[in-house]
Amino acid sequence: MLLGWNHKAPEIIRTLDQHFTKGSEITVFAELDDLDEKIEVLKTQLSNQTLKLEKGNIRNKVQLSRLITSENYQHVILLCYSDTLDMQGADALTLITLIQLRMIEKEAGRNFTIVSEMLDNRNRSLAEVTHADDFIISSNLISMVMAQLACNIKLKKIFDEFLTPGGSDIFMRPVTNYISIDKPVNFYTLAASALKKNQTAIGYRIASLANNPEKRYGVMLAPCKEDLIQFASGDKVIVIADLKEMV
Fold first, then answer.
1. Does residue 142 sit in the same domain as residue 200?
2. What whole-number distance in Å separates Cα of residue 166 and Cα of residue 23?
3. By three-state DSSP, how is residue 72 classified?
4. Which runs of consecutive H residues, i.e. helices, occur in the chain?
5. Residues 142 and 32 in one domain
6. Are residues 23 and 107 in the same domain?
7. pLDDT tens digits for range 97-145
8. Does residue 134 share a domain with residue 14?
9. Cα 96 from Cα 127, distance rounded (Å)
10. Domain co-membership, 96 together with 23
């Protein structure tokens, strides 16, 4: 489900279509005067997913709850109304909607991931109380990519690999797919196990720290390979792999 709308939404939907399996569905829930026409044009550009529109106010908890509880949504993308609101107004609406989503999730006993766009990085600390699964500070992300390319144009091949369909991607997989968790292991052992599956391990996530910003939400990238780590059920390994190699 995609909540909200701005000029980036059509490209996001087209890109998702290239990654989705056939038969997937995305629902847009937003409120804009000319949205019906935009959705109809987008439908003709998709091959793997069906697209439908539900018009309504994303801050309205009754409307949101009705929509979410009537369908089995697994993932929610929340976009800022950056085309029609100023930065702080758009982020404020996003924060309200995030709080509503978490309340609905708890009351309905549902479980879905939330990826939310924010415009001002200074608002991120406020948004963390909603325990969203990820925040995309869109302008910062673009700036960081451009800065890296300006310093080293050879990185373009790497970005092309990760950001275009058909290449390798970054996945988080259960640690129990790679090792036994009955005793501590070092990252060498984890990397060797991933390599046997034609995957490259680049880090891990400790589930018990998922809500701790001071511990980077449990995410450790490029860890010291010699350190012993006691993994637990629910922990993840972060790997680079081709989707066809994932098992």
1. no
2. 18
3. coil
4. 9-19, 35-43, 61-70, 87-108, 124-127, 138-151, 156-163, 187-195
5. yes
6. yes
7. 988 988 888 888 888 888 888 887 777 666 666 555 566 656 667 777 8
8. yes
9. 9
10. yes
25 occurs within a structural domain: yes
Token couple for 135: 């925040």
163 occurs within a structural domain: no
Q: What is the pLDDT of residues 139-186, one digit of tens each?
A: 667 777 888 888 899 888 888 877 777 678 888 899 999 999 999 999
- Is the pLDDT reported for residue 242 higher than 60? yes
Q: Residue 204: which of 226, 180, 183, 229 has the closest Cα?
A: 229
Q: Which residue range forms the structural domain that includes residue 20?
A: 2-146
Buried (b) or exposed (e) across 46-56, using 16+ Cβ within 10 A? beebebebbeb
Same domain, 141 and 191: no
Please give the structure tokens belonging to residue 116.
């939310």
User: What b/e readout covers 5-38, taking b as 16+ CB neighbours within 10 angstroms?
Assistant: bbeebeeebeebbeebeeeeebbbbbbbeeeeeb
Q: What H or E segment, with its residue span, contains residue 240? A: strand 236-242
User: Cβ distance 137 to 121 under 8 Å?
Assistant: yes
The answer to whether residues 193 and 136 belong to one domain is no
Q: What's residue 241's pLDDT? A: 87
Q: What angle do CA 237, 217, 11 make, to 5 degrees?
A: 80
Q: How far apart are CA 143 and CA 204, in angstroms?
A: 26
